[in-house]
Design a protein that fits this description.
Length: about 450
Amino acid sequence: MGKLESRGLRLGFATFVLFTGLAGDFWRDALSWYGYGAVVAIVVAGSIVLLVRNRERFRWSRLPYPLLGFFLISVLSITWSFYPLFTTLGVFVQWVTAASAISIAITLSWAELLTALGWALRLILGLSFLFEFVVSVFVRHPIYPVWFTERPAHPAQLLYWSRDLLFSGGKIQGIVGNSSLLAMVALLAAIVFAIQLAAHGDNDGVTRFWGWFWMVVALLTIAITQSATILIALVVVAIVAAAVLLVRRAHNPRSRALAYGVVGVGVVVIGAVALLLRGPIVSVLGKSADFTGRGEIWKAVIGLAQQRSAFGWGWLGYWIPWIPPFKGLARAGGVQVMHAHDAWLDLWLQVGIVGLVIFAALVLSILVRSWSMATDRIVTTPGSAGHLSWLGLLPLLMLTAQLVQSIAESRILLEGGWMLLVIWGVKTKLSPLAVEFTVKQPRRS
């Protein structure tokens, strides 16, 4: 086995890629955009090498068809784009991010993916608290990213990398420079750590002490960052996990049908209660009914999307704030916003109803495969009853968190969010858990 195929190198590189995708703002804020470009170049080069060396595992025809369809609509949007040069750039970024995700999906097993995610998320959380500690103890005032050279008399709060709030009870921003993004990282981390704890470390060297230590760190981060969206996502993830566990306890078709009936009724009841009490719920969470100003952004986006409803204005990913029609379109916290703060509105705006439907088909297909992976027994011997693995919950719970976040953020289309979505899409189709399962897998549920 060559060095490039060694487990340590594969896990190390995957951790680096996932860290870069989920904490891209750290590289930009610490090293400037030029430094970030160098980091991305390393990620892309390494991913291409892995794809070439593992080309026998990768075929375009084997990728999920909705994913291929979304690639196609984004490329085709160059032809009708209002800003074709920037659409070309956006498509390039989308493709290289997907390439990095695919390289991880085809070179790591599910257990190795869980390990790499755990390492990357621990790094982000640990470095975030260390960073905020250094700022509060030694710097003692808010600091800007290195790329921000202007010093306005009354700067927008969103421009700070850290606002020196660790010891004042405020919303810390961590190395990602944004409390909402840090909260999302913490939620994803809580999911990963919970699965590792349930699976007794999943053979990656995580002891129960350190497993619970990092779980407490993740939950503490969610509490400190005070993100209403992530608190709601945490509740939804817990409900989905409970539904999965209920279905998994069913041992025959009759009890399984009953379990699905209970889950269906529960979804309807919870959905109705959430809809009827949405005002009081968001008020308790410290938000207005439109999640603190997002209503104005959504209104502006809807008005623009309606002008090119079918196919959109052209794919971008992040908005380019100095070009029409985005220049002056919407502001929040004193700065120009870079996305619609709703992934589904962003899709409608950029690739129209056609692209929105294709993306919805992609998400639905991943959800169906993820649900099956979470609830179905793994049969490795013909005629056996099979068994269950905690690892099977990973894509479903992670995607659930991403979908809740997509209502208030567009991150599922960008950087780490898009990277994770592609990983779930590719891996749930190409690498069913039963195929990878061995006798060395962690303790079963």
